[in-house]
Amino acid sequence: FDCLAVLLSSKQNLSLFLEAQGIELMLRCIREKVHSGFCSLKVLFFALSSTDSKKACERFVDVGGLKTLFSVFMGRSLSIPKPAKCSDAGSKVSTASDKNGKRAKKVTLAKKEWLQGIENNMIHILYSLTRHLDDNSPFDAKARLIAKFVEDDCIKCDRLLELFLKYDTKMRQAEIKYLRSEEADMAEAEGIDIEFAALHARLQGGGDLYHRASAILAYLISSSKRCCGHITEQLKVQNSGIVVIKTALHEFASVLDQGEQRQQIISLGALM
After folding, report:
1. What is the rounded CA–CA span in Å between residue 272 and residue 256?
2. Are 9 and 50 in contact (CB under 8 A)?
3. What average pLDDT score do residues 225-239 get?
4. Alpha carbon distance 8, 14 (integer Å)
5. Which of 6, 25, 139, 181 could form an S-S bond across to 62 if both were Cys, CB 3.0 to 4.6 Å?
6. Are the CB atoms for 224 and 138 separated by under 8 Å?
């Protein structure tokens, strides 16, 4: 699966993957809710996230990928791929000695990393869809994506906002931890740009997912009055407002190279 994911960085390989119904196969693996589903999410992440992935994103919607995607996105335990029992993440700690030892800590960490990996892939896939689906996409792809967020009283918007705020907190905690560390003191003594180093810590600590979640929220706000109203109202409940999303978009654009992706983020900010 890892080799396949890397190969999809090639435009030619991506075209062959689509012709061979690769997206359909990955979705089938995810629906099986077994170990391969985790790997399939990673393959889809690579297939949908390159600059040449517009057709792949449209194909993903056309073959019913949204239903499978959002079942996992909502964190429903029955929909999340389960790790193999032979892996650390799929292991069970049975004996009393194991529960209090290194084995228990290893299993707990592996389970946490498994769920984190799924969450990471889900946010990247959703971001890729918002990046490539537009009003000209066939199969009513954009409208179908927006409709998923509107249905059930915008419950998926709530989930997305929950993840946005979660990674905002994690990112800030990572920055504070770095600034209080000996590593930061040594970097400052060596003349290294502390602001740049702190930004790197923010990105490593959850900033990357925070930025992408903000872009998805901005896409929804600019595309749907219903989503805009609901997200705005939920932010008010958190004693916040749309400005936090605009701030996240501004920071996201600042870390991107000049190009189409950066311009799209700037445009989303201007539409809000």
Report:
1. 20
2. yes
3. 96
4. 5
5. 139
6. no
